[in-house]
Amino acid sequence: MSPTPSPARPPSARTPFAHALSGLLDVLLPADCAGCGTERTQLCPACRHTLATARPGPTLLPWAHAAAPYADPVRQLLLAHKERGALRLAGPLGEALGRAVRSALGARAGAAPLLLVPMPSARAAVRARGHDPTLRLAGAAARSLRRAGLDARAAPLLRHARPVADQTGLNAAERRRNLHGALTVLPRARRGLAGRQPVLVDDLVTTGASLAEAARALADAGLPARAAATVAATAVRPEG
User: Fold this and answer.
1) Are 210 and 179 in contact (CB under 8 A)?
2) From CA 175, how far away is CA 180, in angstroms rounded?
3) Which of 42, 114, 155, 200 has the most crowded CB, counting CB atoms within 10 A?
């Protein structure tokens, strides 16, 4: 009789070693394009061009700008980075996020050193994925902004203060009620941040309820964020 197999680890629950190995294999054995499926390249020229040439603009929240609509191939690239650990996508996605930051700030982009504040990920989600995708994108965006000549850094200042219900199926008002008071600022938040302009960043904005709650938490801590930026948005404000 064959031995009883040990329980399999869920594919998303990666150890740090497994996640590092996945990144190495991604370099040595490139997967198909995460955006469209083109073989032997994680990001094909066409999808890279779509991401790089997307025109940032305001979302349903006028102070929150997104680099692109949440549609393929951008949607597939975000999912590959977030859920499948396609870490090399953080660079081009971060560049898109950096452009959204500059769009959201407009003329204020160079007025003060920037502090990119990523939306916090739940600890359980970080453990399951093996990385914090939003923090990684924030760091990539800060590097992109520095290459453009702006003083920018990323810092995870926010954390969850209480559990929240699953947002699936909730409308905008229900999401706001569900999230109110759910975030707080880490005690060390004010250290070394004097004079920096906080900008909230995330991978995706839908109703804007999460960004609004994050802005409330920062304002209550004396760190008002007057702008936010995301890679993608499910809906944008009409022009004109």
Assistant:
1) yes
2) 8
3) 200
Q: Identity (one letter) of the amino acid at 142?
A: A
Beta strand 114-118 with 152-154: parallel, antiparallel or unpaired? parallel
Q: What is the 3 state secondary structure string of the chain?
A: CCCCCCCCCCCCCCCHHHHHHHHHHHHHCCCCCCCCCCCCCCCCHHHHHHHHHCCCEEECCCCEEEEEECCCCHHHHHHHHHHCCCHHHHHHHHHHHHHHHHHHHHHHHHCCCEEEEECCCCHHHHHHHCCCHHHHHHHHHHHHHHHCCCCEEECCCEEECCCCCCCCCCCHHHHHHHHCCCEEECHHHHCCCCCCEEEEEEEEECCCHHHHHHHHHHHHCCCCCCCEEEEEECCECCCC
Along the 240 residues of the chain, how does pLDDT read in single tens digits?
A: 433 333 333 333 444 444 454 445 555 555 789 999 998 888 999 999 999 999 999 999 999 999 999 999 999 999 999 999 899 999 999 999 999 999 999 988 888 999 999 999 888 888 888 899 999 999 999 999 999 999 999 999 999 988 887 777 788 788 888 888 889 999 876 677 778 999 999 999 999 999 999 999 999 998 999 899 999 999 877 655
Task: Pull the structure tokens for residue 178.
Answer: 């569900």
| pLDDT (0 to 100) of residue 29 | 54
Question: Which residue matches tokens 């008071």?
Answer: 181
Taken in order 137, 227, 117, 167, the sign of the CA dihedral is: negative
Q: Is 126 exposed, middle or buried (0-12, 13-18, 19+ CB in 10 A)?
A: middle
Look up tokens 């700030």; give the residue.
105
Q: Residue 150 corresponds to which tokens in the numbers above?
A: 């702006």
